[in-house]
Write a structure and sequence with these properties.
Elements: H1 2-20, H2 34-39, H3 50-60, H4 81-102, H5 112-143, H6 155-175, H7 182-193, H8 198-212, H9 230-234
Length: about 240
């Protein structure tokens, strides 16, 4: 989870800022004027990812959210599978709501870079997700000799290079925080086949809960665990 979080901040957030001068509220570790929240009409209580929804309205109103990489804080991550699943489902359901709320407005956005950013998120949650799902299915069917796709081309080489780039870019990202260790290199390689694939499960389950079961959107606070103080630890 730590590798995932650092990659998001140092690649996606930093990339948005570098290319488009756009950043989104990260959910934690940000400061905002109370008067601005009042000016925007307060929180959208239907938005489970209130940071994403509020970010769009802030930029729409002509304000800028600045990305500050040297403002560093620490946060607790889920320690149990069920807690992680609930947290990520809230993120997916929340971002689906945000996409649905603003997608029809994209052509009318004065800030075209913001419009592109929302379109990118839309592609990530649907187009890219479907591509990954189909790719995994074909990979498994091919591995067990159920299907054979005889298309000419250096596809094995392309896959290997894509994997090398995946490992390289994350390792480079971690180097900015001094976490480009041999242990993390092993985790990055393992994550490609394990942790990254859990995204499919989370998205499918979120779609089931949101559009089939139609469960009410409830903001689910991530469970925290006790951390012994230094005084207790040294006692």
């Amino acid at each position: 989870i730590n590798i995932e979080t650092l990659s998001f901040q140092s690649m996606l957030q930093a990339g948005r800022w570098q290319m488009h001068r756009i950043a989104t509220l990260p959910g934690t570790n940000f400061a905002m004027r109370t008067s601005l929240i009042r000016e925007l009409g307060g929180w959208d209580e239907q938005a489970l990812t209130e940071d994403s929804e509020l970010s769009i309205r802030i930029i729409q109103h002509g304000y800028q959210i600045k990305f500050i990489p040297y403002a560093v804080t620490f946060e607790q991550e889920p320690q149990e599978w069920k807690v992680w699943v609930r947290q990520r489902m809230r993120w997916v359901r929340g971002n689906n709501y945000v996409i649905g709320k603003f997608s029809r407005q994209i052509p009318k956005f004065e800030n075209k870079r913001l419009a592109f950013d929302i379109f990118y998120t839309l592609a990530l949650y649907y187009v890219f997700f479907i591509a990954i799902l189909v790719s995994d299915i074909l990979f498994l069917l091919s591995a067990f000799s159920v299907v054979s796709i005889a298309l000419p081309g250096p596809y094995t080489f392309v896959w290997i290079m894509a994997f090398v780039l995946y490992v390289g870019e994350i390792l480079l990202t971690l180097s900015y925080d001094g976490e480009d260790t041999a242990g993390n290199l092993g985790l990055i390689i393992l994550m490609y086949f394990t942790y990254c694939q859990l995204w499919i499960y989370i998205v499918l389950k979120s779609l089931w809960v949101e559009y089939v079961k139609k469960e009410k959107r409830v903001w689910d606070k991530t469970d925290r665990f006790d951390v012994p103080s230094k005084r207790t630890a040294n006692a």
